Amino acid sequence: MKIKINHANCNCKDIKLCAEICPYGYIWEVDEGGRVGISPGHEDYCINCGQCASICPSGVLNIVSNEKKPVKINNKEKIPADLAAHFLKTRRSKRSFKDIPLLKSDIEEILDITRWIPTASNKQQLKWMVINDKDKVQKIAGMTIDFIRGIEAYKELAELYEKGKDIVLRHAPCLIIVLGEEDYFWSNTEAGIALTYLELFAYAKKLGTCWAGFFTRAATSYKPLIQYLDLPDGYKVCGGVMIGHPLYRLHSIPARKPVDVTWK
Fold it and tell me: Does domain 3-66 have CATH number 3.30.70.20?
């Protein structure tokens, strides 16, 4: 069993909230004494998502595999909707960075937030690679340019790179790469969600980010770059972001197209 329950302190009576909120509610049962738990033989159906622990008002549930008690939510602390909207609207890609190295502790804090992304069946399969060395980032940019030279539509990028203008990784001090399992259907989706969490939290930490699209394309098909990255067996590059201290401060929110919605 992956869930530990302190039945002595459970205050639930008729409605067992843990069973009600469970994605696979049929695996729960209530015994003759009114105690709720996972039905014997159904333990492997538990995906260890923690929904039961999050809704328990008595705090008597714990996810055993995590070995940590849930942190109580302060439901009085709410971000006002207008403030949240302003935060989301003002996050923009940064493509110019100060020549300042990033602290490992800052990167670790930003990556840590990605543990709370939604994942299919609570898979949590992503891995991360951090290139926190400007010279190594530029080496990767150069290898990406080698890949781009074979694409006629992007030949101008190679020419600019030769002139010292890096359009690929923007002379960023750090490159963060997200890896997903090669044979897992949701790898790219979960990686995209994780990079979005990363970008938003980095913005909250006053750091700038930009998706590394040219690098990502090269890292999925260009063998010299894939070999240089030395990926874990069974994993592929799903995306990457440049990150650093932004060189410029923005002052306005540009307009966007209206939302395109079909109502049925």
Answer: yes
